Amino acid sequence: MYPDHTPQRAVEVHHPTPIPSPVVHPAPVIPAQPGTAPTVASIVLPDGRVVTGYAIDAVHPEPVTTKPAVSRTAVNVALGGVGFLAVCGGLLLLTSFIAALTAFITQLVTLAAVIFGGWIAVQVLGTRGHQSGGTTVNIHKAVIKRNHFRS
User: Fold this and answer.
1) How far is CA 1 from the centre of its chain?
2) Which of 52, 69, 118, 151 could make an S-S bridge to 42, C-beta 3.0–4.6 Å?
3) How far apart are CA 87 and CA 80, in angstroms?
4) Nearest to 57 by CA among 75, 77, 36, 78
């Protein structure tokens, strides 16, 4: 089983120790008389067999307690309150939306005024600067004219 160069080991065998079973003493049987003797019923089946047993009374469920009726007025008041809160919330959202839209339109108008005003300022100041003593010279034409006259 083991190769020649390995020492053999001693094998130890363990046997389980049985656990003694507990001694069971049967409980004494005390005969008890029922308060009333149940009636025994026998039924003859169609194939001729007879079944005998005790009759069991049908179990009757406890009557369901009726819930108190809810007043129509209370229901209407509750629904009216929910509707009122929904309308108030909607009006609050509508008011917030209108305020945000107004601010947005105001910003757009301001932006347009700044852009348009800047454009007008450039037009007015740009043309006024040329009219008050400034001279516009087209260098390309001046060079051509100079070369033309000198050649």
Assistant:
1) 67
2) 52
3) 10
4) 36
Two structure tokens written together for 60:
């009757």
Residue 11, classed as helix, strand or coil, is coil
Q: What are phi and psi of 66, to 5 degrees?
A: -80, 140
Would the pLDDT of 39 be above 50? Answer: yes
How many degrees, rounded to 5, is the angle at CA 58 between CA 55 and CA 62? 155
Give the Cα separation of 148 and 107 in Å (integer). Answer: 57
**Cα angle, residue 52 at apex, residues 51 and 57 outer, rounded to 5°:** 115
Task: Give the angle 81-85-86 at the CA atoms, nearest 5°.
Answer: 115
With tokens 């007015």, the residue in question is: 124
Could you tell me the pTM of the whole model? Answer: 0.35
Q: What is the pLDDT of residues 10-31, one digit of tens each?
A: 777 777 787 777 777 777 777 6
Q: How many CB atoms lie within 10 A of CB 117?
A: 10
Q: What is the dihedral of CA 99, 102, 106, 107, to 10 degrees?
A: 70
- Reported as type and span, the H/E element at residue 31 is none
Cα 147 to chain center, whole Å? 84
The residue type at 47: D
What average pLDDT does range 33-61 have in this prediction? Answer: 77
